[in-house]
Task: structure prediction
Amino acid sequence: MSGGVDSAVAAARMVDAGHEVIGVHLALSSNPQKYRSGARGCCTIEDSHDARRAADVIGIPFYIWDMAEEFHDSVVENFIEEYSQGRTPNPCLRCNEKIKFAAVLDRAKALGYDAVATGHYAQLRKNENGQTMHRAVDPLKDQSYVLAVLNRNQIAGALFPLGDTKKEDIRKEAQKRGLFVANKPDSHDICFIPSGNNAGWLRDRLGNQSGPIVNELGEQIGEHQGAFTYTIGQRRGLHLSVPTETGSPRYVLQVEAKTNTVVVGSRESLAVTTIVGEKPIWCGEAPQKEIQHRGFAQVRAHGAALACTFTATDTSITAQLDEPLMGLATGQGLAIYDGDRVVGSATVSETY
Amino acid sequence: MMPEAIAALTEQISNFGNASSLHATGRAARKKVEEARESIARSVGCAPSEVIFTGSGTESNNLAIKGFYWSAIARNPNRNVVIVSAFEHHATLEPVEWLEEHEGAIVRRIPISPAGIVDLKALTAIIESERDRISVICVMHSNNEIGTIQPIKEIVALAGSIPVHCDAVQSFGKVAFDFEELGLHSATISAHKIGGPFGIAALILKNGIDITPVLHGGGQERDIRSGTLNTPAIVAFGVASRLSIEERDRNYEVVSGLRRLLATVVNEAVSDAQINGNSAHMLPGILSVTFPGTEGDSLLVMLDNVGISTSTGSACSAGVQRTSHVLLALGLSETVARGTLRFSLGRTTTESEVIRVGEVIAGIVMKARAALTIAGKGGGEKA
Result:
């Protein structure tokens, strides 16, 4: 229970469904901030207080589990490491994969509980082969993308009681249930960087590492203070003094960690039609390998479903997009859908 | 709360005379306050005029620590050393650390032996090297997490003329505590720990000593503590302190017996469980146990589920559990300290409840170990 409206209503719905429920708030920082400023951060002292009050209203026991160490080791360290390799990770995917539906689920099971229910917007459907995961009915809130990193065992221990309802109705339901978290803003930023200044946060940890900014011909046209602070598709913050011939803006095309080089170029050069992802995870039955399937690819949390043809192997997913996509950083999550069903996901390792 | 204290509180709550007023209802309230003060003085072993009522144990500790510090440096700016035991309650540590951060205090922390007793040799060395610079020495009478009683008399002897402040919140009403006999300059006691109400406590401050106030106002309590007296709570505090002393020795026998039984059943069920804190004198109602290879959080959830309430380290702001500074001060590693639970026993605890712990603890520890092994952190380190 994060202290927000979604997990509070999810807990209440689980109680209504007749389950024996305990509320768990995760302490993910060893030095929690006292108060959130705006919607930033998701593990402040204020949030844990709100979560406790929600549990009181619902009438369930409430505990705080200190997962700061696990979170730091598997999410924060991974975030820094990925950036230092010139990739752009999505820490929310890692948190779901390694913390919420791994460390928490494992501990809960060991203590005698059956499943972890969260306030994520996604739907699970039972069939003869187990379960399948689908998009939520509310397209604006659908969070199946950030859950696509879960494997079959993790899905078997997960419950998403909000997937069949629109967010606005969840807010109303919270109000009706007397849960006073109903008017909180949604949180979108990276919870462990409450300042919102990701580049500054990374520089504090990785140091200033100046290096060249080059054009597509390899000519140096500027300098940067750390290639790791750039993301493919980024346009701002390049501080280039040499304009292009046509005056058109330049975008980051590549971040080369080994040579600490940032390559920039025209918007057209950002176009991607083939996405290769590594370390595939199948949340339901794996698709037949080495043959082409039709489906949709999604590469951002609230991004579009892109029609594609995809092929799976034991170690990769390759998606050929029907229409090119502008700018995709390696390290991001590639989720594959069959209609509204999540087939699986992989981490983007190559694009062309 | 004790029924007698509830009766005293509820009776007095409808008499709203201000004990500081001079009219008849005021005088009636004042009489009740003074009777309570005398009752508490008898229970603590001090003069009635040495009892200063405050709103909480935290307030008493803040008043003593800041008061002694400020009055010492006002006379001599070099007297800015504060000595504190490493395993004090947050209500002592925080004001000391505040003085360190904001008021130029130099803080010396007395190390703790693995058995849970302040290291007198280390204290002697600190006092010898900085005697003229010390404003106050703070050592609790007994530790709230592990129950060991501290050698206060020896500390007072070592201190000589240096003020010694003693947080006796855990001890008062549970074990022998005599302010005058110990030779203390000041001590903290609180009503809620002895069957009295919340929101009333006292600083016992030796007559003839003036310390700088923290709250400024009407000077109701010896010009050292200001604020309208909470007469109903004070009256109930007086009743609770009298009864807790009357019942103390009998309660001590009964609760100590339950504590021994609990230690036995826990050790029988979990052979490698370690009891923390070991001295000739212990609080009867606290048992700190480390279960190697577990996380206290997991144990707490499962015990709570079967109706047994325990605590892990001290919960600080927001209930986020932090590894107990007390256990770390004993020399336990962070990992071992996290597998520690505190059982609290009192006059309402029954033998069947203790036996129940013995019945469930082995299974619960096994599950908690499995939880930690799954997390890849189990095994290896032992207490």
The mean pLDDT of chain A is 90.
